[in-house]
Amino acid sequence: MSAPAESARRAPVRPSSLPPHEPDLRHHGDAEVRGAEGGLTDLAVNVRAGTPPAWLKARIAASLDGLAAYPDGRAARRAVAARHGLPVERVLLTSGAAEAFVLIARAVAARRPVVVHPQFTEPEAALRDAGHTVERVLLSEDDGFRLAGATVPDDADLVVVGNPTNPTSVLHPAEALARLARPGRTLVVDEAFMDAVPGERASLAGRTDLPGLVVLRSLTKTWGLAGLRVGYVLADPDTVAALERAQPLWPVSSPALAAAEACCESAALDEAAAAAVDIAGDRDHLLARLGEFPGVRAVGPAEGPFVLIRLRRAAAVRAGLRERGFAVRRGDTFPGLGPDWLRLAVRDRATTDRFVTALAEVLATDLTAGHPD
C-alpha cells in the first residue's frame, strides 16, 4: 500500500458545523472517499459501479463539438416527456436533482413545510437556506421506517418524501404516497433511485391525477453522472413554469442535455432495467452475508441500491473498515437515525465477499478489545 493511500484511509471525515445534537445536513457520502486517491473501495456513494458506460461517454463526447452554441434543451425535454408519457409542459430539466430542491424551496410559498425523515438531507437544507421553518416527521424503526405509522400534519402545504428512501432503502407503496396528495399541498416525491427498482413499481412519475404532485428524478445513480449534474422535475405546467422562473439562464449544459436525451432512449431504458435486476440480486447476496453476523441488523425489505444497517459502535467499525480499505456511509447525519447506523452501497458479489471478510475482522477486533456490544 502506498503512503498516500494509507494516509487517505486514515483521514478524518469533515466534522459537522452544526451543534452536536443536530445532524449535519450537508454531509454526503462523497466525503467518505474524497481524497482517497483510489485507495478505498467505495461503499459510501450510491452510484452504480462501472459507469458511465462507453456508449454514453461517446454520446457526451460528441456533444462537445457544439459547445460554442448556448444549450438548447428542447430535444432532451421531449425525450424525458416521452419516456414518462407526459406532455413537455410537465417537464423541467435541472442541474441535478439537488438544484430542484433549491428551486422548490425558493419558488413554492409554503407556510408549513414538512420533510419526512430519515431521508436525503438536501431538501431540508435547501428549505432552511431559503428561510423556511421546517418540521420533521420521523419514521420509526419499529415500523420499518414506513409511512404507515407516520402522521403528516393535515395543514402541511409542502411535504417531501423519498421513494425508495435514502438511506433506509424502503420503497413506499404508491397508494400510501398518493394519500398524502391533496389540494393546496405540494407533494414532492424524490425518485432519484427509482430506476434501480425492477419495474419501477411504486413510481408516481407518470401520474397527472394527483393534485400538487412533484416528482424528481436523477440520472446520477444508474448512469454514473454525478459530475455532469443532470436531473429533472415532473409536475403540473404551472409548477414547472414557477420553478423555471427561479432558474438561472441555461442551467443545464449541452453535454448534460445530450446525456438526458440518450438515457431516455429505449436501449438505455432496457439497460437500466437489466441493471436494476442485477442490483436486486447483488443486494440479496449482501443481505444474506450480513445475516451471518448476529450483531448486525439490516433494515428490510430493502429495495434500493443500498442497505441500511444497525450495529453497536458503528463509528469504530467504520474506522476499522476504512483501515482495511472500505469506505461506508455514516448514518448519524440523517435525522431520525443515530450513531449506531451505517449505509452500504450494493456492489458486485466479489466485492461484497471481500467487504464481509473485512467486517468480520473488525468485529472480531472489537471483541478482542473488550467491546462485546
Question: What would your notes on this structure say?
Answer:
Helix 2 packs across helix 9, helix 4 packs parallel to helix 5 and helix 11 crosses helix 12 (349-368). The relative contact order is 0.16. Residues 1-20 have low confidence and may be disordered. It contains twelve helices and twelve strands. It has helices at 3-10, 54-62, 74-84, 96-107, 122-129, 174-178, 220-223, 237-246, 254-263, 266-290, 314-323, 349-368, and strands at residues 41-43, 91-94, 113-117, 135-138, 158-162, 186-190, 213-218, 231-235, 297-298, 306-310, 326-330, 341-345. Helix 5 links the parallel strand 3 (113-117) and strand 4. With 373 residues, it is of the alpha/beta class. It has a seven-stranded mixed beta sheet, sandwiched between helices. A five-stranded mixed beta sheet has the order 1-11-12-10-9.
Write the layout of secondary structure elements.
Blueprint: H1 3-10, E1 41-43, H2 54-62, H3 74-84, E2 91-94, H4 96-107, E3 113-117, H5 122-129, E4 135-138, E5 158-162, H6 174-178, E6 186-190, E7 213-218, H7 220-223, E8 231-235, H8 237-246, H9 254-263, H10 266-290, E9 297-298, E10 306-310, H11 314-323, E11 326-330, E12 341-345, H12 349-368
Parallel strand pairs: 1-11, 3-4, 3-5, 5-6, 6-7
Antiparallel strand pairs: 2-8, 7-8, 9-10, 10-12, 11-12
Helix pairs in contact: 2-9, 3-9, 4-5, 4-8, 10-12, 11-12
- The computed structural class is alpha/beta
Overall, the morphology is globular
Strand proportion: 5-15%
- Give the averaged pLDDT, no decimals: 92
C-alpha Rg, in Å? 21 Å
Widest sheet: strand ordering: 2-8-7-6-5-3-4
Strands, count: 12
Oligomer: single chain
Distance between the termini: 31 Å
Q: Helical stretch count?
A: 12
Helical content class: 25-40%
Largest sheet: 7 strands, mixed
Spell the H/E element sequence. Answer: HEHHEHEHEEHEEHEHHHEEHEEH
Enumerate the spans where pLDDT stays under 50 for 5 or more consecutive residues.
Answer: 1-20
